[in-house]
């Protein structure tokens, strides 16, 4: 049997959230707040990496994108609107079913598959995995599988909680404790700090080209920041 990054209990947990995934006030409300922040970062990295016109509507025209751990398509749909040929995978069949229906309703063509990244053939110009690496069986195997699907000259973008007391307080104690995120979503022991992330990517032959924090404040909510303590995004390319 081929090695897989999927943990059944994680797939079941997120699959149970499928019914209201697109409800900005439902169980995935925090993802709806997080998505514009990470999408702004993705767009900025795309423009820098391929020297695109930052005012252009379709900077990914003619390029392929693979979104791993796509959920019901919160990031995959914007990538398609940016012009990419998008393949999106998730371990939870319930989420893929919702994603397909929603994309059809939006008039978008996205190749959704209920599988792990290890079962995907080919290479892609852009590879994304948002809030996924902390939920897999083995982070190094997962990063290796992502890199194996990154085309020469391509760009990879990941996001994940940092392994800090601040992240544990806000993400688990408060957000899960007060029902903003479903309980059991996170395991602090599986959080990854930036130094470890850099090592995982280097082992896979990739070079980190940027780190950006996602911070929370009472006045600005979730926003991009130099403060990496809560959550961060990382962009990488072939070394």
UniProtKB/TrEMBL annotation:
GO terms for biological process: methylation. Transmembrane segments: none annotated. One of its GO terms (molecular function) is 2-polyprenyl-6-hydroxyphenol methylase activity. Keywords: Methyltransferase, S-adenosyl-L-methionine, Transferase, Ubiquinone biosynthesis. It holds the Pfam family Methyltransf_23. HAMAP family: UbiG (MF_00472). Belongs to the methyltransferase superfamily. UbiG/COQ3 family. This is Ubiquinone biosynthesis O-methyltransferase.
């Amino acid at each position: 049997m081929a090695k897989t990054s999927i943990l059944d209990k994680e797939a079941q947990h997120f699959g149970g959230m499928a019914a209201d995934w697109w409800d900005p006030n439902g169980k995935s409300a925090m993802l709806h707040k997080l998505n514009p922040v990470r999408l702004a970062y993705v767009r900025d990295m795309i423009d820098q990496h391929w020297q695109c016109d930052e005012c252009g509507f379709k900077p990914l025209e003619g390029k392929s994108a693979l979104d791993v751990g796509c959920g019901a398509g919160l990031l995959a749909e914007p990538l398609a609107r940016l012009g990419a040929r998008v393949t999106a995978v998730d371990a939870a069949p319930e989420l893929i079913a919702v994603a397909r229906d929603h994309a059809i309703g939006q008039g978008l063509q996205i190749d959704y598959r209920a599988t792990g990244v290890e079962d995907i053939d080919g290479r892609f110009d852009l590879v994304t995995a948002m809030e996924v690496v902390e939920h897999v069986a083995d982070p190094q195997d997962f990063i290796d599988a992502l890199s194996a699907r990154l085309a020469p000259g391509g760009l990879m973008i990941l996001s994940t909680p940092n392994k800090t007391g601040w992240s544990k307080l806000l993400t688990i104690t408060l957000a899960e404790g007060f029902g903003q995120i479903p309980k059991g979503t996170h395991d602090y022991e599986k959080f990854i700090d930036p130094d470890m992330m850099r090592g995982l990517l280097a082992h896979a032959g990739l070079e980190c080209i940027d780190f950006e924090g996602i911070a929370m404040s009472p006045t600005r909510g979730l926003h991009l920041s130099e403060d990496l303590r809560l959550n961060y995004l990382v962009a990488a390319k072939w070394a």
